[in-house]
Amino acid sequence: MRQGIDYPTAEAGTRIRTRYLKAMEDEQFDLLPDPSYVRGFLRAYSTYLAIDPQLVIDEYDSRMGGIGQPIEDARRRRRMAVDRPRRREAQLLWLAIGGVTGIALLAWLGIGGDSSSTSTEADPGVPITTPAGTTPAEGIDVSFIGRGNRGSYLEVRNGSESGETLYSGVLVPGATRAFSFRDSAWVRIGKPDAVSVRVGGEPLAISGGTGTFLITQAGAQRLPAG
């Protein structure tokens, strides 16, 4: 398993049997004893891995459309022996909560305090970089593009941490989210090396580990943790 945690250790820490931990990571929810167990198991497992449990449950609901029907459909598919590919985005979700074959979210993935990125984290409050050829102006366009073969948790708010939340979720490789702001964008990125940022069409390099940033026309500034 990821993070150096094996199944016996996770079972002891969550009191969830190993076969159910594997079932959650493989999205085989029909192997759980009852549909009503899904939320409780997800909450307990994500809490054990220091991941926001509500975010995991919200992502589960948004992708699975609830508990009962997806599980019944899975059982029906199992009886019919139909092997259908899992959706890549959903797979990244479960990899993020400790999957054995990859990395991701939630590393999500940054919200659990993960700072294991190989890049050196910049000192809080120090401007990181400025896109070439830009000048201060009112109104900025910022886009975020998933890159590489990993997903990253991304949260975007208008202006500041107290501003309107425009996006909160997992940005998968190849996906793009674009926004317009009057002055600035407050963002939290779980894995900066898995996200390309552009301001007014110009690339903006963000280095370091998990963190929050204030993006303006002049560049990006890492904000103090807390």
Structure overview:
By secondary structure, the protein is of the alpha+beta class. The protein folds into 2 domains: 2-96, 434 Repressor (Amino-terminal Domain); 127-222, Immunoglobulin-like, CATH 2.60.40. It has 6 helices and 10 strands, in the order ααααααββββββββββ. Strands 1-10-9-6-3-4 form a 6-stranded antiparallel β-sheet. A hairpin with a 2-residue loop joins strand 7 (195-199) and strand 8 (202-204). Helix 3 (37-48) packs across helix 4 (53-64).
CATH topology of the largest domain: Immunoglobulin-like
Q: What structural class do helix, strand and pairing data support?
A: alpha+beta
Describe the sheet with the most strands: 6 strands, antiparallel
Return the domain count. 2
Question: Could you tell me the strand content as a percent range?
Answer: 15-25%
Low-pLDDT segments, ≥5 res:
81-86, 100-109, 111-126, 133-137
Which term fits the overall shape?
A: elongated
